[in-house]
Design a protein that fits this description.
Blueprint: H1 3-24, H2 29-34, H3 36-54, H4 58-63, H5 69-81, H6 88-113, H7 117-120
Length: 121
Amino acid sequence: MTRHDTIVRLRHMLDHAQETVQMAHGCKRKDLDANRQLSLALTRLLEIVGEAAARVPAEERQRFSAIPWRDVVDLRNRLIHGYDEVNLDILWAIVQKDLPALAAELDKILASFDPGPSARE
C-alpha cells in the first residue's frame, strides 16, 4: 500500500466521522429510537470509519498510536456481525463523546501529510 492509499483511508475515516457528528448535531438520544433512518445512517457511517481503519497498514497504525485502532475496528465488526443487537445507548455515547476526539486526531494526522499548497498545484 502506498502513502497515498494511507492518506485516502485516513481521509475516509475523518470525513465519515465528521459526517456522523454533523448528522447527530441537534439530536437527542431518543431520536435514535424515533427515527430509524437516523439510527441506520449513524450505524453505517461508523461501519465505514471502522472499515477504513482496518485498511490502514499496521506500520501506519503504530506510527499514529493516538488513534484507538483496535477499538475502531472492533466497533465496525460488532456493528456488522451483531447487527441485530446494536445497543443504541452505546452508539450514541460513541457519536457524542468519542467521534469528535477521533476526528480531531485524524485532522492532525492528515495535516502532517499535507504537502502545502504549492505541491498540490
